[in-house]
Each structure stands twice: as C-alpha cells, then as structure tokens.
Amino acid sequence: MQTTKTPPRILGLYDVPMWTFLEQDRQLRLQCCTDCGTWRYPPGPACPDCLSPDSDWKPVSGQGEVVSWVMFHKEYLPEYPAPYNVVAVRLDEGPILISNLIEDPAENVIGKRVKLVPVEMDDGVVLPRFELESA
Amino acid sequence: MKRTAAVIGVGHSDWVGDWHRVRAGERPGDSYHYGATAFRAAIKDAGIKREDIDGLIVGPTTAYERMAEVLHMDVRWGDQADAVLSVLQAVQAIETGAADVVALVYGNDQRSAGIQYGGPQAMGGDLFLSYVYHAPWGMTSQGALYAMTFRAYADRYGISERDLGHVAVAQRQGAARNPNAIQRKEITLDDYMAARYITEPLRLFDYCLINDGGVALIIAEAGIARKLSDNPVWIESTGRFDLNRNATSLEPRLTDFYRPAQQAVAEQVFGTSGLDPSDIDVFQVYDSFSVHIPLALEGYGYCGVGEAGKFMSEQGIGLGGKLPTNTSGGHLSETYMQGWAHQIECVRQLRGECGERQVEGTKRVHYSSDVAGKAVSIIYGRD
Question: Is the ipTM value over 0.90, yes or no?
C-alpha cells in the first residue's frame, strides 16, 4: 500500500469516538453493548441484538481472519492509485471490517489470520489496517 | 393460480442510436425525455390512450411529480420505485382497487450526465453508509463489492474465473442476435480471459454498460387486459425477501451470497404458483455484474449449491442451453436500464417476438433481482 492520504471521511453522529481513539491511543475501540456485551459495527444508536441504546467503547483484540479480498486495477479515488488491495476481515469479536493489508497478497489469503496495524497517514488520520500473522 | 394483472404494452427508447449520439458528444435529452420516448412506444404497443391510464409509477432516476407533469397525466394512484418493485406495486395497486391500468415509466441519462458508480462522486456517495465505512480504505464502486463476493464464493466452492466467463459469453450470444443491443460482437472464453481486470477477480466483460435510455410498461387489471389485448403477459406470482442485517459490513454477500433471501423468495414464487424451476423456459437476472447469475442459479434451485460453474459450462445458459438466461444480452451487452429492460425481454420472449434470439415455445419466464440484499422475483407467463 503506497497511499499516504485518506479519502475524505464523512463522519456521522456515532462515528467520531472510533477515529479519536485511533488517533490518540493507536488502538481500535468499537461500541460494545453495556447490557448484553454484543459488539456493534458500524457504530449506531441501538444494539443489534437486544436493542439497548447503551454502549461502551471497548478495545478489540485486533486479531481476525480474512473473509475476502480484491485488487483494484482501476483508479477511482485520487488517494488510491491502482493497484491496491482491499480486504474484509472478521475480527475475533465478530464484526467484519473493510480494510487493507499492508502488503498486497501474493496468493489467496481467505481464511488467513491477520492482526491490526494502526497506520498514521500524512493527513494525520490513523487508519486501522492489517498484516498477515506470519509476517 | 390467480391471474390478477397482465402486461399489455412495452416500449423503449433507441438505446443503440442514443449510445452513438452520446459517444459523438451529443445530449439527446434528459431522463424525462427518455421516459417520455418509452412511454409513447408503450401506449402505442398496448393500443390504448393516455386517458385510459389511472396509475403511474416512475423509476428512481426521475421525480414522480415532474414525470407526471411532462407526460401531462393526472392519475388516482402513483409512486416511485425501481424496476422490480414497480411491477410488484402495480400488481398490489390493481389487486386493492387503487388503480386499474398502471403505466411504469423509467428514464435515465446516466451516460450523458456522467453519473459515476465508483469514486468520490459515486451516486451521492456520502449519503450512503457503505461509502462512509469503505472509502477510507479505497473501497468504492459497486463492481468491487461483487468482486469481493465472487472471491469468497470461488474460495468456498472452487468455481474458476474462466467458469464465470460463461455468463459474459452467453449473454453476448443473445446480444449478437438482438438489434436493440449495444454490444453485439460475440466473444469467446479466451476473449473473456484476455480482457483486463477492473477490480480483480472481475474483468471488463463482467461489468455492465452505462448508457442513456428509457423503458415503459403498461400493466392492467385482468379483465381489462383480456379486453384490450390479444396476448396479455400474465404476472403469475411475485416474491420478496430483504437482507439488511450487517449489510454495511457486506456480511450477507460474503458469507451467504444472499442465498437465504433467494430461497425464501423461491418458496413464494414457486410455492404460490404451483410451478417449480423445471417449468421455467427463460431466466432473466438483474446483472449489474456477471456474478449475479451463478448466485441466482443456486439461490433459486436451478442447480445445487456450489454447482453453478458446472451448470453453466455443462448444461449451458446461452441460447440452446438448458436454461437460456438474459437472452437479450442483459446489462452486460444489451443496455443498462437497471432491470427495466429485463421486464420487456420477459414480455417479448412470451409473445414470441424475439426473432433470432427467440426461445421457442416459451411459456414461463422468471425474473430475479438481488440488488443490495433485496431479493425479488416475478414469474411471467402466457395463456
């Protein structure tokens, strides 16, 4: 991944804490239901399981597994010149995150274990990306 | 089965002519122009007057009120909906007595207006959650979502990229025999494999066209349809099931490939009509990307789970194959009318108007759409 800037994020009412924690602590925290412990991503107003409005921003392990991945060969965003990869990672806590692998995959990586790497971009955004466990 | 409504008229704009005009830098008209063009053709095809219509549904690319103003129509019932839901809503309006003759009108100037389906200006991207939670990592474009879906599906079941190529090859075969199709040069599997990746594992021929155009249909209550038409095309059954849980994380696409929704819809459309997949002569599938076809073949039970690659290569989905699919060329090769033109192809196959691409003896056509987790089906039939 050679990108140095982040495409503009349009943050909604529930989005700010995740990015603030990333920038301050280099740590990914997600909403976790105060009442039943279900993880919530993307952030939102109600627990997907018990509908409780209450949540705590708890750190996740950063461990996960690749669900799928693609390589972009066409440039759509000026911040992302092709080629580059995008992965879908299922965190051990449950939610699936769309992200990037630090190194473009050389072979099929579905099912491979990955760990989170916070990457500070030139524009100050700390982007949660992943690398293969063996790397 | 109970037949409550039928299609009695269809029409469309000059997709091929407008494709060339737009490429030459002209702007033939706006979305309302294309809708009006298709509407004129549809009422002529139905042999009715505008005054016979008392319901109107317009596509999501135009404002309902403005389209009604352009067409100079005052109606007692109306709405705005996408291709497949507009047919369902027209049937529901007819069954509840809200309207008797409903016009469905779609127009889209997406090519000449430079509408983008990926990148910073993608369909007002900032308004869609998916773009907010994908864009920071460069994930954009609908095609990339289907590339990711296909990679997970291929990993699970072993379908190859070459197997997927059967979709583009088969649809181009139909398009080559369709004077209304924009891309008519036949391609081989080797041509498919030689084309460049857009978002790997999907290649150029896996992607739909983007072109200007319009489509219109006239749907009438059963008694009126019999009176007005010699060859009404019946809406035999409809079904719908939506998967929205965890959609932003792409979970319904990546883990179940929308199959639970399609299976639920299959029970509705086949169960209520007394039909099963073996009764279907022609299959029409919303194909913004080729990937929709293998998933729908499995979801609706035309082949076993994980067997779509084998089905396409051994039984065939082209003309002369076991299940001719997207016989007009579909979005990939005929015209990208966001599902609307597929409805016309259903009607024309049932009327026997398809010339060189006609599937002889067609009595039942199944249309399936699974856009963004909304699985919807219609079975069309004739007397």
Answer: yes
Q: For position B372, what pLDDT does the model report? A: 84
**H or E segment to which residue B228 belongs:** helix B222-228
Which residues of chain A are in CATH 2.40.50.840 domains?
A: 61-134
User: How confident is the prediction for chain B on average, in pLDDT?
Assistant: 95
Instruction: Give the one of B134, B155, B197 whose C-beta lies nearest to A110's C-beta.
Output: B155
- At A71-119, the pLDDT tens digits run 999 999 999 999 999 999 999 999 999 999 999 999 999 999 999 999 9
Distance CA B182, CA A27 (A): 51
Q: Which residue has the tokens 């690398």?
A: A131
Tell me the CATH architecture of domain A61-134: Beta Barrel (2.40)
Q: Which residue of A has its CA nearest to B201?
A: A70
Which among B126, B246, B254 has the least Cβ separation from residue A68?
A: B254
Q: Residues 6 or more apart from A83 whose CB is under 8 A from it?
A: A71, A72, A73, A104
Task: Assess A108–B contact: CB distance below 8 Å, yes or no.
Answer: yes
- What's the rounded mean pLDDT across residues B319-325? 98
Q: Considering only residues 24 to 63 of chain A, which have any Cβ-Cβ distance to chain B shorter than 8 Å?
A: 41-42, 48
Q: How far off is chain B from A76, nearest CA to CA, in Å?
A: 5
Closest in B120, B248, B250 to A77, CB measured? B120
This prediction's pTM: 0.95
Rounded Cα distance, B175 and B143, in Å:
22
